[in-house]
Give the backbone structure.
Amino acid sequence: MRYYPVQLDIRGRSCLVVGGGAVGTRKAETLLACGALVTVVSPAATEPLRGLAAEGAITLSLRGYASEDLSGMFLVIGATDDEALNRRISADAEERQVLCNIADRPEVCSFILPAILQRGDLTITVSTSGKSPAFAKKLRGTLAAQYGPEYAAFLDLMGAIRQRLLAQAHAPEAHKPLFEALIDSDLPALIRANQRDAINVLLEKVLGKGYRVEELLDSVLKNCASRT
């Protein structure tokens, strides 16, 4: 296995995108959504990037790339159509030990980006180790049909249940069969259908009295409805 699967916490970390086209825009938006401090360097930039810069969400430098742009950066993404420039970015990053991804060039990357399916706190990633990004996207589409918005609400509810159980004087090992019973149930389908009464019957059956969705997390089903 060539790649070490990992999910990075980039909140508050400085990240650089070189390239202001459609690809660079997508990369910058994803980094921004994950809480990064995003800088984009490019002689030209899309309107969405200019808009983000005007709002103060990103730093946009309308000029060519310079090696010094990597100073203080946690990672860099090269998203240009200039092969020589992309390889220069990769070499600069390697010299400075900065994580580097070059769009569609896995051979000069220190990390590659998978296809991502996001359902609230549920993150499913699909990677073909750079062999076929198109197939990774196809698999993501298949998974998207299987894991709908209800799974975001399902995880919210499971998190609330976990917090309450941990607050009680129970051995952690005792919680395992309870969670397994909920996971193996039709709880996600009940959430999708907004069947509160059926959800409460299931919770009481598995967890005992006092476990009702209204008391655990009143906004769960509302959140699910807003995501649909």
The chain has a mean pLDDT of 91. The longest strand covers residues 14-18.
